[in-house]
Amino acid sequence: MLWLEDVHVRRGGTHALQGIDVEVRRGEIVALIGANGAGKTTTLSTISGLLRPQRGRIHFEIEGRRIDIGRIRAERIVAAGISHCPEGRQIFGNLSVQENLQIGAYLRHDREAVGNDLRSIHALFPILRERANLPGNRLSGGEQMMLAIGRALMSRPKLLLLDEPSLGLAPRLVEQIFDILQRIRGDGMTVLLVEQNAAMALDLADRAYVLETGAIKLSGTGKALAQNADVRRAYLGVA
Amino acid sequence: MTASYILEQIVNGIILGSMYALIAIGFSLIYGIVRLINFAHGDIVTIGSFAMLASAVALKIPFPLAILVVLVTGAATGMMIERIAFRPMRGAPQVTGFIASLAVAIVMENIGIMTLTAQPRSFIVPAYLSKFIAIGPLSVRAIDLAIVVLAVLLMAALALFVRFTRTGMAMRATAENYNVARLMGINIDRMILLAFAIGSALAAAAGLMWGSKYSQISPLMGLIPGLKAFVAAVIGGVGSISGAMLGGYVLGLAEVLLVGLLPPEYSGYRNVFVFAVLIIILLVMPNGLLGHSTEERA
After folding, report:
1. Are A74 and B183 an interchain contact pair (Cβ–Cβ within 8 Å)?
2. What is the value of pTM for the model shown?
3. Residues of B in Cβ contact (< 8 Å) with A155
4. From B220's CA, which of A143, B53, B111, B264 has a CA 20 to 30 Å away?
5. pLDDT mean across residues, chain A
6. Where are the domains of chain A?
7. Share of chain A above pLDDT 90, in %
8. Backbone angles phi, psi at B78, to 5 degrees
9. CATH number for the A2-90+158-234 domain, one of 3.20.20.70, 1.10.10.10, 3.40.50.300, 3.40.50.720?
């Protein structure tokens, strides 16, 4: 449902993406792994429209129509069905937990369905209902991550871009988040996941891409990459 | 010094504070969303008073209806300033934005002087607004009462809008983080424009109040109220809307009471008091009364 072809992005003088090709198929979890500065976050920000590619094409298929999203504004890309859960969670600290979820549905006018989705987010993350009236900045890191994912789901996306969900979280919480991702996938969501925790990402993902200094170095199924000697040495900490 | 004299001074402080608060809200609203002080904000006060003169006196539009004309004129001017001076500077260093708004202020003031002359014009409110109304032991001019009531109504409307509407929520989100707001589907250009429109409409309302209260207006009349309202916004904690309201009233009361209670020979030092209040409050509370620790947007 998503194709990146020969995408180049320059960012503050550096050639952050040097012609990458990525494909995400409906219902898949695709992981993007790589070291810090390899261009993982840049890739997600380019798909969601926060950054513009200098060259290349980005196509998104929605309801049988293929649209070119490489040149359209971030606001319109959300409307097309891509939701980006940004790195570092970035919830709105001065908005209440409830408002953070509501603003995720900013573009939606189907009030009833929004109410239903809010209930299913609460079912997925019960803590968000308990904390509904607290300002976002009063939540713990793990709760903020849940809120960020919940907020991203409130736009009812077809494709979820998820940047570093494990960042700064205790291992137990990371496992919980990954369990949730499994459940979201079970509901038919397609996910493009950026993760430094390569072991967990490869375990979860159907397919994965290894990004190195702005270029795709390797790609394959999660299982195959987890067995690959180079990947094991560089990203899984196995000699 | 009798109790009724002190009470009278308090009432005067509230009237002045209402106007400061309305102007200060605009500074805070705009700062909150673009992290820039709009130096042309005081000139919107002037625009508001002249819009009132043009509509109520020249075109003889009934006074209450003319208030609407003033609000719309203020909003339109604010939006124009955003498009001309702020939007092209977005992403540029902060200083550039300050200079751009200063340039707008100078241009507006000079166009005002060239076309309207610096000569103050008298601005007479209808007779029913100059009557005195007795409230308990006090006797207040109807216009003063109208100023306070209108100011409180406008502020309440703004507070409800920002707190409870979908657009108000989107404005708060935009003020926190442009990029994430865009990821929610919010058109941030529109939110910024809206902040300018609302802030400027309130400043224009303050302009019509100022003109009505002091019965004369001139192209430079907005400078001092604008400057003092900026002080009020800083006292309240710039960026905070409730802070701006509080700061406006604190400043209005402090100014009137200090002038009214100190011996008459000190009354010439009115503006000294204003800035002394600012300095003292900031020494004790560097972020203002209701401000958060200031952090730059990443």
Report:
1. yes
2. 0.91
3. 184-185
4. B264
5. 92
6. 2-90+158-234
7. 69
8. -60, -40
9. 3.40.50.300
